[in-house]
Amino acid sequence: MRVLFAGSPQLAIPSLDCVQRGHQVAAVLTNPDRPAGRRACLAPTPVKARALELGLAVLQPQRLDEAFTESVRALGCELLVVVAFGRIFPAEFLALFPLGGVNVHPSLLPRHRGPSPIPAAILAGDRETGITVQKLAARMDSGDILSARSLPLAGTETAGALSAGLSGLGAELLEETLADVEQGRAAGKPQEEAAATYCRRVRKEDGRIDWEQEPEHIERQIRAYDPWPGAFTTFRGQTLHLLAGGAHPQSPPREAGERGLVFGTDNRYGILVRAGKGVLYVTRLQLQAKKPTDWRSFLNGRKDFVGSQLGVDDD
Fold it and tell me: Hey, which end of the chain has fewer CB within 10 Å, N or C?
């Protein structure tokens, strides 16, 4: 099949490689280069970088307008394949493809429709997630399901690690689904609308820790926002990222004080912080402008940490 592939992040690269091996990729549609790093130099999306390595044509429109639609029409593509492109296609654009469009979504639809299903699954404490290949539809992530595959969750996954695992699983499922599409065997199943849940785009501020929350929630927050934006609080006017930790099995002692108070250490678990009605233990941290470190090394350089109140500098 002659395909237009649309995607931007690292998650989409295994699927691009899969489509390129088995079909004719007329072009790769990805988001425009954006400023990155301290110098704000323009950087390509991971998908663009991979497409150029493969010698594929790259399209980076600012808008999916009529002029762009006409340029895609000239490519003569049969099918649109989308993996984390991040923009909604107008109906006139989708009409260009005789076989329609398919979308690889990293959740078990209709659960976690939207742009950040991987962090959402971790935050919700889901016991499983997965990949869904659906038909593209006018409403976000609401198309008929062509195929799906589940992945059990151990409750230890970070968003980064889970994304890497789902990207490979998605490529495998996409390969099987495209074979069905090519042979005319792909039959879609409508989603159960009553079971639909939604997630929004992750913002930097979502990583800020609210010490009123229970430690179980904060532990999921640490994993859900790794690598970005990270789970963070403040310590004496500086940003402090919590990189690993969990809920301590014991209730807070009387001296635990107010929520956010670093009240002690545990040789088995790490640094102890009062959170909600319980205790969060922290095993790995990173202070602003410093390297990540384990809790013992951190305390060696910060004798004033135990007894401090975290988050008091938050706006």
Answer: C
Describe the crossing of helices 46-53 and 13-22 by its angle, rounded to 10 degrees: 30
Domains of the chain: 2-195 (3.40.50.170), 204-301 (3.10.25.10)
Give the pLDDT band (50/70/90) at residue 315: low
Q: Compute CA distances 38 → 9, 209, 237, whole Å.
A: 20, 25, 22
pLDDT tens profile 235-251: 999 999 999 999 999 99
Q: Comparing C-alpha atoms, which of 18, 179, 35, 158 is closest to residue 83?
A: 18
Strand partners, 135: 102
Q: What is the 3-state secondary structure (H, E, C) of the chain?
A: CEEEEEECCHHHHHHHHHHHHHCEEEEEECCCCEEECCCCEEECCHHHHHHHHCCCCEECCCCCCHHHHHHHHCCCCCEEEEECCCCCCCHHHHCCCCCCEEEEECCCCCCCECCCHHHHHHHCCCCEEEEEEEECCCCCCCCCEEEEEEEECCCCCCHHHHHHHHHHHHHHHHHHHHHHHHCCCCCCECCCHHHCCECCCCCHHHHECCCCCCHHHHHHHHHHCCCCCCEEEEECCEEEEEEEEEECCCCCCHHHCCCCEEEEEECCCEEEEEECCEEEEEEEEEECCCCCEEHHHHHHHCCCCCCCECCCCCC
